[in-house]
Request: fold
Amino acid sequence: MKKVCVVGLGYIGLPTSAIFAKAGIEVVGVDVSERVINLLNKGEIHIEEVGLPELIKEVVADGRLKGSVTPEKADAFIIAVPTPIHEDNSANVDYVISATKAILPYLEKGNVVIVESTIPPRTMDDVVAPIIKEHGLDPYKDVYLAHCPERVLPGRILIELIENTRIIGGVTPEASSKAAEVYRTVVTGDILETEAVTAEMSKLMENTFRDVNIALANELVKISAKLGVNAHDVIELANRHPRVNLHQPGPGVGGHCLAVDPYFIVEKAVEESPLIQTARTINNSMPEFVVEQVSRLTCELEAPKLAVFGLTYKGNIDDVRESPALDIAQMLVDDQRFNVSVYDPHVRDEQVPFTLDSFEDAVNGAHLVVILADHNEFKELDLKKLKAHMKTPVVFDTKNCSPLGEEVLTYRIGDLTNLKAIQE
Ligand SMILES: NC(=O)c1ccc[n+]([C@@H]2O[C@H](COP(=O)([O-])OP(=O)(O)OC[C@H]3O[C@@H](n4cnc5c(N)ncnc54)[C@H](O)[C@@H]3O)[C@@H](O)[C@H]2O)c1
Reply:
């Protein structure tokens, strides 16, 4: 394989382009955003990911990766465009459709077409293949179509793209084998060949497994709050059982994967998926639960000042998509009772609908710090500094990540037994 065309240069497509280029393959990266392309051709990127700025700079300078708003002929096409949900939680595969249509003029017999975007079951056969057929190529003979889902962890993408086990779901066995060849040029992990629909379903069940298990931990938090139990202790002790792995609770589930993918299954099998639907409902209820606890903590204060720490859906990243932390911050900002400052060292003002503050401005005179993301900065909080700046040094930690110390009274989400309203 000499040349790859990657369509969609986000958190997945950009690092994928970079690792193929690093392996000596000519790569053209395509995106509808001119800003993304202009930056890329200067050797710069628009997202935060460990090691990526340096790698992109290197492969663009070497001429192995270039950006373009239109695709080019290539041996393999890799589609990594967004697959969000509509307002009604149904899958929006419009970007996959338009990306597939965009490559048609450049597609030739013998090419490999890989969709890396997470897609509902049967999308390769029912959506992608018919577009190629309509163009005049047989999607089961002339080209090799496969779904190769991504399971990388933001912050470790460049490592995991190479080391993770890959599932390769071809629409035919030949398609699986041709797509596997593409990945063998860069992947050192296992490469498992299967059918397209099995690959689609496997990816969705991976994330659904996690969503359902987080819902169980979040339900435990609510039960524990009612019964006066410390959920963190329960989880720690129960997990000493050799076959139990209770997940960690939190302020809800976010991101474009865990909070979205279960709906792709529900849409295709609504009657058969009550557990998956209930898990979504429980996780979606957590922002409200967090706001309720903030209200309980501040009910005796006249003008409570809150410092909200963290807006991303997980720690040490800059991604706020579907973030429950963002919903919680918005609910608190909208509540006239609160004076809210928001601090997130990983997020830029233009990503969010309110102004971000510095650490000092956020905590100065605050009655309560509400931690919503487990960034390293919050794991290493300087409690003495907090005490010095805050009016009442109290922390509500929904991620169970901050240090504990006598300078600050910390309530963790799973341990609300002794919660007392803050006094001025
Ligand atoms: N980010 C992750 O950690 C992750 C992990 C596993 C799976 N996925 C899946 O991978 C897919 C891509 O996710 P992402 O996080 O990279 O998305 P992203 O939003 O970061 O990037 C997508 C890019 O595609 C571009 N785009 C949209 N339509 C296009 C088109 N028709 N032609 C060319 N470019 C187009 C956008 O401008 C954007 O730059 C999604 O289906 C997602 O669910 C993501």
